[in-house]
Amino acid sequence: MKKNYNVIVNQKWCKSCEICVAICPKKVFDMDNFYAAANRPEDCIGCLLCEKLCPDFAIEVRLKTEKEK
Ligand code: SF4
Ligand code: SF4
User: Fold this and answer.
1) Rounded-to-10 torsion of CA 54, 16, 8, 10
2) Ligand 2 atom 6: the closest Cα is on which residue?
3) What is the whole-number distance in angstroms between the Cα of residue 66 and the centre of ligand 2?
4) Does the residue 45 lie in any domain?
5) Domain with 45 in it: what CATH number?
6) pTM for the full model?
7) In the structure, what pLDDT confidence band is assigned to residue 3 with cuts at 50, 70 and 90?
8) Percent of the chain residues topping a pLDDT of 90
9) Counting beta carbons within 10 angstroms of the beta carbon of residue 1, is it exposed (0 to 12), middle (13 to 18) or buried (19 or more)?
10) 63 phi, psi to nearest 5 deg
11) Shortest CA distance to 54 belongs to which of 39, 36, 28?
12) Is residue 10 part of a domain?
C-alpha cells in the first residue's frame, strides 16, 4: 500500500535558500515567489531529507492519518 505524507512548509521560518528544492529526490517543492511550497506532496516518499537539511527547520513531513487519506 502506498504511504501518503503531508509535507508542510512553515513560510514564516523559510529563508528562501532553495535547499529543499534542490535536494528533494521527488521534486516535491517549488519556489513560490519568495518561499518554498510543497506543491507535489503526493510524490513524497518520506525520506525526510528536506526536514533534516532545511537550515531553518521550516519543513515538517508526517504520515497522513487514516482520516486524511
Ligand atoms: S530548505 Fe527550508 S529555508 Fe530553504 S527554501 Fe526550503 S523551506 Fe525554505
Ligand atoms: S521527505 Fe524526501 S521526498 Fe518527501 S518532500 Fe522531503 S525530501 Fe522530498
Assistant:
1) 100
2) 50
3) 20
4) yes
5) 3.30.70.20
6) 0.94
7) confident
8) 88
9) exposed
10) -60, 140
11) 36
12) yes
Of ligand 2's atoms, which has the minimum distance to the CA of residue 27? 8
User: Is ligand 1 within 6 A of the CB of residue 49?
Assistant: no
pLDDT at 23: 98
Whose cell is 535558500? That residue is 17
pLDDT grade, residue 69 (50/70/90)? confident
State the total domains in the chain.
1
Its domain, for residue 48, covers 5-63
Residue 69 lies in a domain: no
Whether the predicted pLDDT of 1 surpasses 90: no
Asked if the structure places residue 41 within a domain, the reply is yes
Q: What is the pLDDT of residue 2?
A: 65
